[in-house]
Amino acid sequence: MNILVYAPLAVLGHHFETDLEIIQNHLDQGDDVTVVTCDAYLSDLKFMACKGVLRCEYCQSRCQQGLSLLRNTQKLTHLSLGKLLPVDCTTGKIDLTSNDQVKSLNYKGADIGSTYISSLISDLRNPMVDLGSRVKQTRTSLHLLAAMTDRFEQLLDENQPKKVYFFNGRFSLYRPLLRMCQQKKIEFFVHERGGSNLLYSLTLNNMPHDIATKEREMSTLWQDPRRNEEEKVGMSSDWFEKRAMGKGTAWYSFTDKQDLTELPPCWNSKNQNISIFVSSDDEFAEVPGWEIGMFDTQAHAVSHILNSFSTQPEFRFYIRMHPNLRGLRNRDIDALRRLGDQNPNCVVIPPESTVSSYTLLRRSNKVICFGSTTGIEAAYMGTPSILVGKSFYMNLGSTYKPESPEALEKLVGSKQLAPLPREGALKYGYWAKTVGEPFRHYRPISLTTGEFNGQMIVGKRRYMFANYLSVALLDIKKIIKGEYGLSHLIAKVKAKTKLLRA
Asked: pTM for the full model?
């Protein structure tokens, strides 16, 4: 069988090792495997993982070392994506300062405008990007993405793979390949992290962000007869309880520094206490199917709720900003921080606060969230949970889904709102804990490091240290421009220090 694996970003720890895991599995099965890397030609895209010469050199050194560790390589072919000649797909067609026009840009059926905006949002950690100051970058990126689309079309036609593998699918480095595979009806798998650090997930013929696909995964896992329901409930409960203790297994815990006994100092159990959990929404911004719907932004939705109950002092609202927003600055975040001063029945709990998110979940009369796991965690704990927006758990029957602002106001205003059955939450927890395939050749040591075929892939250390320094300088530049706070840089330095010690 002819397999193609697209692995352009060796700089991404764990994900590049997942590429290698997939390659090694198919080589061991006797398949013909073609691996496509970028060989430094994607740096002009200025994708968040491709910034700077030093980072590029570090990525290349990790790629070379990783590929050298593969075994049974008689049927392995290594190709370069090659130097891309920009394709003018914008002149006379769109206004490069208009978000809506850029988002609508398609090239040969690939939504290159939407994926460019989505990647830019993740890079800036700001869902409200200003293209007016980035016209040159936007033009260059879109022309290169059109060239990538042509190159992917050529690779698929020349190699005729039966299966294609790549990471994520949302980012601009991958979306054109995903769309080409869909058009040519080639089976493809998008890999991501699994339920634990020891697992990786494979999503068939779609992005791993697709809600209907994840719902089918949950249903399939729950119906799998290899474990009885009692075991599944126990494993699901374990996932929820560990998260409540700040012990997540698939990603960093954002609550491990919070005090499990701490509530806001003004907390009064006699009030109708409603906690609103604000998400970091850059990951799902511009992903089809994840629009908030009733409101343009989370800040707009929160303001609407507060205004609707401004004359009812017995309703107290606690806006818990996601800890992942620590140190970030943008219009929405600043607007949310100001709400506490503008509304007497509202308390804003900033990202850096040690107030316990899970104590809030348990003690609140009801919870409002915008798609984060707190919504389904509240349902598991027996707290009425209202979902404003989209989420993987939206159709599991454990959270309320208002379809209009009026329906939302009615749910928020109900003093007798009962929690919905938690069976859906149990399905979600079991899926979140167990989804994925076990690694056979990669042994994770931390969330971003591990041994592949018995060896750590560190690349050239001089490039690694220089890369970390260059990224820190870029962050300092953003701090000076007011896009980041100093606490954001401090948190990243601590994470990198932990990585270097691993």
From this structure: 0.90
